[in-house]
Amino acid sequence: MSISQNLIDIKSQLPQTVELIAVSKTNPESAIQEAYDAGQRHFGENKVQELIGKYENLPKDIYWHLLGHLQTNKVKYIAPFVHLIHSVDSEKLLIVLQKEAEKNNRSINCLLQAKIAKEDTKFGMTFVEIEEILAKRYEFPNLNLIGIMAMATNTNDEDEVRAEFSAVSAFLNKVKDSTFKELSIGMSDDWHIAVEEGSTMVRIGSSIFGRRNYL
Ligand SMILES: *Cc1c(COP(=O)(O)O)cnc(C)c1O
């Protein structure tokens, strides 16, 4: 199957209200260009270095999403152009993001990453920590905190995945307002469940670009 055919297939099953982010990490620029030529504009990467290289070489109207853990010393490299950071997982990172956004005279869109998976390798904050950050949103005038990102446990147990998505969706509904309302959940193996549980953005890599050799 071709990249453009994969995109058509996924889009035909996705409600129009759900944004498709094509996760292009580890794939070459030619693959991104192919998806771009098929009309895709939102792309996600999980490493800063790779994101910068692709940003420099590819069309400037691409919306770049950062999905992976972001170290504070790397914020300055992406602050000028990044569209949305999905993986904001600490107050320390928010403070640096605010400073860099201000320096660049722009607003940066952010999602707060919630930890819902059972594995302890995944980054993210507890629901309580997210509520604490929301309570001091005013300290970050150059950041648009627009919602939550989460990753389910990597398991074949669909009930477990659904329970985790359902919990984060219920939490978002509790704290939601007119600006904090996005829910970035769902990857190649679990996006159907995520959409049923209220996803507004799915992050799909291998089902578009083919299987990667590594994560
Ligand atoms: C790699 C990655 C994805 C996409 O994973 P696929 O299984 O290839 O769809 C989504 N979100 C994050 C945070 C990722 O690192």
Describe the structure.
36% of the residues are buried. Helix 7 (158-175) links the parallel strand 6 and strand 7. The model has no long low-confidence stretch (mean pLDDT 96). This protein has helices at residues 3-13, 29-37, 48-57, 75-78, 91-103, 127-135, 158-175, 191-196, 206-209; strands spanning 19-23, 42-45, 63-66, 84-88, 108-115, 143-151, 182-184, 201-204. The chain is globular and about 45 Å long. With 215 residues, the chain is α/β, with parallel strands linked by helices. Helices cover 39% and strands 20% of the residues. Strands 7-6-5-4-3-2-1-8 form an 8-stranded parallel beta sheet. The protein starts with a helix and ends in a 6-residue tail after the last helix. It is built from 9 helices and 8 strands. Bound molecules: pyridoxal-5'-phosphate (PLP). Residues 23, 25, 46, 67-68, 151, 187-189, 203-207 line the site of pyridoxal-5'-phosphate.
Brief descriptors of the model:
single chain; 215 residues; alpha/beta; eight-stranded parallel sheet; 9 helices; globular; binds pyridoxal-5'-phosphate
Question: How would the blueprint of this fold be written?
Answer:
Layout lengths: L2 H11 L5 E5 L5 H9 L4 E4 L2 H10 L5 E4 L8 H4 L5 E5 L2 H13 L4 E8 L11 H9 L7 E9 L6 H18 L6 E3 L6 H6 L4 E4 L1 H4 L6
Parallel strand pairs: 1-2, 1-8, 2-3, 3-4, 4-5, 5-6, 6-7
Bound molecules: pyridoxal-5'-phosphate.
The site of pyridoxal-5'-phosphate (PLP) has 14 residues, from strand 8 and helix 9.
